[in-house]
Specification:
Layout (H helix, E strand, L loop, with lengths): L5 E3 L18 H14 L3 E4 L12 H14 L4 E4 L9 H5 L8 E5 L3 E3 L2 E3 L3 H13 L3 E6 L3 H11 L8 E6 L9 H9 L7 E5 L4 H11 L2 E4 L6 E3 L2 E2 L2 H15 L6 H8 L6
Parallel strand pairs: 1-2, 1-10, 2-3, 3-4, 4-7, 7-8, 8-9, 9-10
Antiparallel strand pairs: 5-6, 11-12
Helix pairs in contact: 1-2, 1-8, 7-8
Amino acid sequence: MDKLIITIAPTGNVPTREMTPHVPVTPEEIARDIHDCYNAGAAVAHIHARDEEYRPTPRVEVFASILQQIDGYGIPVIRQLSTGGRHGKTLEERSQNLTLNPEMASLTTGSTNFPNMAYVNAPDLIEHLAQIMKERSIKPEIEVFDTAMINNAYLLAQRGLFREPLQFNFVMGIKGALPATPKNLMHLVESIPAGCPWTVTVIGPQHVPLSTMALAMGGHVRVGIEDNIYYAKGELATNVRLVERIAAIAKAVGREIATPVEARAILGLKPAG
C-alpha cells in the first residue's frame, strides 16, 4: 500500500469570512495556511484564488501571487490549481492560470448539479482544458462527482489526452450530486483501473468516517475549509487542524504519510527541480 497523500484545500469558492473567520482569502493568508498544513503532513495544495473583495476569481495574476508567496516559504508542496467553473465560465477564464505551468490542475470531466447552480462542463471545454494540460505537461486530477465522469476520463485517455497513471478525486456529499456513503465509495473505487491513485473529498458529516475508510483501503484524502468549515458539530475548523486529524488517524491505523517527493512518485509527476 502506498503512503497516504494528504491534500489541503484551504479556500475554495464558497466559504466566506462571514461563515468562518478561519478561511484564508488573501495570497499571503492562503500561502501561510499551506505552509502550516505542509508542516502538519500535507503534500498537495489544491488552490483557489480570491479577488480584493474576497470573491472567487480566475485572474492569473492572483494565482501567480499565491504561488510566489508559497515560494517564499521554500516548501516543496505540490501546487494543484483549480480550473473549476464557479470562478470562471469561459475557456479563457478557466484556463488562464494554466499559463503558470503548475505541476497539477483540477479537471472535472462532466456536468452535475450543485445546491444552487448547475456545474456545467461541456465536452468541448473539457477537451480543450485537457489539451492545454497535455501541452504544458500539467497533471490533471480528474474530479469525479458521479460515475459517468470516470467513463468520460477513459474516453479522453484513449485519445491520448491523459498520461498514465490517471489520478482521480471522488467528490462526495454535495447536495444534488453523489451521496457520501460507503457503498458509493466502493463503487467508485471498483470503477477505475487497478493501479490508478485516487483521493476522496467528502463534504459534510461523513467526512471523517469515509476518509478513514478511504485511507484504510489504500486511497488518499483531501481536507480543508473549502470542503468543511466545521471540525465537529458547532465547532469551526482550521485547515491545520483538519490535516492534523487525518494524519493522526493514519498514524493510528499504521499508514505512513507521504512527503511531497514520495507523492510525486505515486502520482507519476516529475521530481521537483
